[in-house]
Amino acid sequence: MRRLWSGSQSARSNSLAEPACQIETYTASDGYRWQYRHYVAAGAPRARVVCVHGIQSHGGWYENSCRRLTDADFEVFFLDRRGSGLNAQARGDAPSFRRLLDDLAEFLKPLREGPTKVFLIGISWGGKLAAALQRRHRGFVDGLALLCPGFYPKVWPAFRTRMAILLARLVKPRRLFPIPLNDPQLFTATPRWQEFICNDPLSLREATARFLVESVRLDAYLRVVPSHLTVPTLLVLAENDRIIDNARTRRFVERFATTDKEIIEYSGAHHTLEFEHDPAPFVRDLISWLERHLVAR
């Protein structure tokens, strides 16, 4: 399914000031304390929505969609990955991809208490974590929305840099390397959001050798995930995405074991749908998909 962008420009602020959320802290089982944004539903919560961001971004990029979700009576938790966004400790690092999956599972577990449904949204690189969770920790979510997920990236470090990363992983695993996504035009064609990305102090622009190698190991882990993924799944793609390979991503998701799959591709859109001239159509479609899956467990 392909959708066209239409309507007026979003009135969203061009800064991270005055977020309509609470900044809260979660302590992982290994002692790491990481922060997240908690958006309280406007009315009685119809469901809980947990979001995980991309390799460079953070929860502050997605305030508009989070507010629209709360207006529709969804309670939203937007997690900043350890070492990124609001989390300054061990900047750009993670012990392993499994530790990141455990962070997510530990946070989700108490949300499962009671009858309220829990949905997981994985954005870009975070889509890899969201999907892989279904292999390592099944049963924590009732549905999965993948927004331009990073299963098959188009952008890689140069060959010499990749060799340097491998060497550093052996001798200096916390050595930092540039993330090869520092051109804001990769994310959006909207000038004001390009400027926002350039000036964003919380964006992650470097990652450790250990983290980057773990990202590749996560790719290998994902290859057998389709047989484990049985929850309803929404895949959202942007036609002009310069960061991920849409065709390979579509084929990968079509292999998921679930029979409840929906794929939407937005004509003329770029990787970060939140930064389109008008993100309202994508947010409406996301809310509509969530609403269709609110029947009791």
Give a structural overview.
Helices cover 32% and strands 20% of the residues. The protein is of the alpha/beta class. It has a single domain (2-292), classed as Alpha/Beta hydrolase fold, catalytic domain (Rossmann fold). The strands form 2 sheets. The protein has a 9-stranded mixed sheet, sandwiched between helices. Strand 6 (117-123), helix 3 and strand 7 (143-147) form a beta-alpha-beta unit. It is globular. Mean pLDDT is 92; it is low at 1-19.
Keywords:
11 strands, 297 residues, two-stranded antiparallel sheet, alpha/beta, Rossmann fold, 8 helices
Question: What is the secondary structure topology, with strand pairs?
Answer:
Blueprint: E1 2-4, E2 22-27, E3 33-39, E4 47-52, H1 63-71, E5 74-79, H2 97-111, E6 117-123, H3 125-136, E7 143-147, H4 159-171, E8 176-178, H5 191-199, E9 206-208, H6 209-222, E10 233-238, H7 246-254, E11 261-267, H8 280-292
Parallel strand pairs: 1-11, 4-5, 4-6, 6-7, 7-10, 10-11
Antiparallel strand pairs: 2-3, 3-5, 8-9
What is the gist of this entry?
The protein is of the alpha/beta class and 297 residues long. The protein has helices spanning 63-71, 97-111, 125-136, 159-171, 191-199, 209-222, 246-254, 280-292; strands spanning 2-4, 22-27, 33-39, 47-52, 74-79, 117-123, 143-147, 176-178, 206-208, 233-238, 261-267. The protein has a single domain (2-292), classed as 3-Layer(aba) Sandwich (Rossmann fold).
Helix percentage range: 25-40%
Strand order of the largest sheet: 1-11-10-7-6-4-5-3-2
Whole-number count of domains: 1
**Total count of helical runs of at least 4 residues:** 8
Helix/strand class: alpha/beta
Give a count of the beta strands, DSSP E runs of length 2 or more: 11
Quaternary: single chain
CATH superfamily: Alpha/Beta hydrolase fold, catalytic domain
CATH topology: Rossmann fold
The biggest sheet amounts to: 9 strands, mixed
Second rung of CATH, namely the architecture: 3-Layer(aba) Sandwich
- In angstroms, what is the radius of gyration? 18 Å
Helix/strand order, N-terminal first: EEEEHEHEHEHEHEHEHEH
- Supply the CATH class: Alpha Beta
On the 0 to 100 scale, the average pLDDT is 92
Give the CA-CA distance, first to last residue.
28 Å
